[in-house]
Amino acid sequence: MSVPLQVHRTFLEDAFRRFAQNRLALIGLVLVLLIIFFAVFAHFLAPFSYEKARFDRVLLMPFQHPEHPLGTDEVGRDYLSRLIYGARTSLIVSLSVQGISLLIGLPVGAIAGYFGGKFDYVICRVIDIMTAFPALLFTILIISVLGGGLGTIVIALSLTSWIIIARITRAQVLSLRELEYCIAARSIGASEWRILMRHLLPNAMSPILIAVSFGIPAVIFAEAGLSFLGLGVNDPIASWGKMVGVSNAYIRVYWHLALFPTLAIAITMLGFSFLGDGLRDALDPKQKIQK
Amino acid sequence: MILFAVSVIVFSLMHSVPGGPFDERKGRLPAAAKANILKKYGLDQPVWKQYMNYMSHALRFDFGIPYQRPHTTVAKLIGKSWLITVQVGLTTIFFAFSIGIILGIYAAYHQNTWIDNFVTFISSLGVTVPNFVVAMWLILIFAVHYNWVPMGGWGSSGQCLFGKYFCTDWILPVVAYAIAPMSLVARYTRASVVEVMGEEYVRTARAKGLNESKVMRRHVFRNAQIPMITALGTEIPNLITGSIFIESTFRINGLGKYFVTSTLNRDYPMIMATFLLVALLWGIIYLLTDIAYTLIDPRIRLGGSSIN
Question: Do the Cβ atoms of B139 and A145 come within 8 Å?
């Protein structure tokens, strides 16, 4: 009989092991890495430019022309190239929205949760009002005010998604603030700032990270949806959502216009949500046991 | 309170838009004529006065005249399109919840078999893939390739079950629309049924010789209802935004489609009215969810009034 060795592992090592054992999470990771690869190296991978229209090659079917394996769109742009550049658009929008949300939501939520008072009251009311409403409608409203375009979409989506980060950060800080180690830190004379930065935020990080990992596919969905409705990015820029929206008019004959971008959206969403699920199970094992 | 805040935000946002609905893009209007039009729609007054004026009318369900269709009123237009959206929504909710609950219970009952895995797989697909993507796939397969059902419309195909209801062109929108809530309901149901089945009182019920169907009905299902109501409460508001995509994909003249066209046309009265209506609906649904909790679970009712 061998006695199992007591191996000392840190929390992150533990989380990594849990993640690596999760098959679905690894599939998600591979898909996400693939999409990032396409987005970063779009210049080299795409056979054509995403905006070059050739009116002598309008609406080619897949494999109809040797240079356009996935055909061309309604103004003669290579569809494969536009799909590859679409990955870049999705990732730029989603990463910048989540980045801005973190920049705003993290400090706002932490200060509101830790110091309370009037600031907390105002933030809570803002959160109440924003959650009293479907976020997507609010985004559409802001876009209708500011006009379409890549920058506007990032602003509009950030305005609604920082709320989620702020709410989670606030709740985390609020519940951690009264724990023994905080009281201990305070009793040995640590400054409020030090407690917040060194003790509270690192411990609040897992749920925030999980929220971000679920926020990315949500933003990809929102961008695709807005572009689908015609409220999204402006024309020469390739966006999967917009490609789907345009294809609706040609769907009877030119099925490829609808099929490829929808597949791209679905695969991206699945990849990110598998990854998010995996991260949640790895970082927050308590939640999995409850489930 | 929240309604008030929403209306103020929407109103001030709408009025900070550069460019109004009567911009002189298509040729110049004489100054007097323009002043007249602005006066007719009350756009010459200060913003706060316009707001007060608007709200006092809105409380009497008078939302003004939509700029995009001057020969009708907002209330009439919304009344008409609202009915279609409610039809789409209710049909969808009905199918989504009935099928979702059945799938969830079935999966929970056959826990960790291939049935369970299959349901879990389908529901995780349904939750993640956006409904307009599903809609396009359905159109490609069933409308374009097989040509079994029409591609769009609502009740205009002529082949209906009851008069103007349950037509062939209802099938695709409802299926595309229902997949996401159905998956979510199946997931919640499965989780809560699995949890309740592991409880002591279920084991007790089995131990005292109750037959299986009675155990499921009397003990398991009744206690598993609470998380399902939560799912219902959070899903119905999401259906409102979901309907925007479904209505634009299938060219259904419902509220969601008018919402998009009115944002594109900067039709203030329409936008204001739809927003207020949705905020009101959202509030009512939350209230109803709370009431439903107390009806199902007496413990919450006895537990005090601290449900928020």
Answer: no
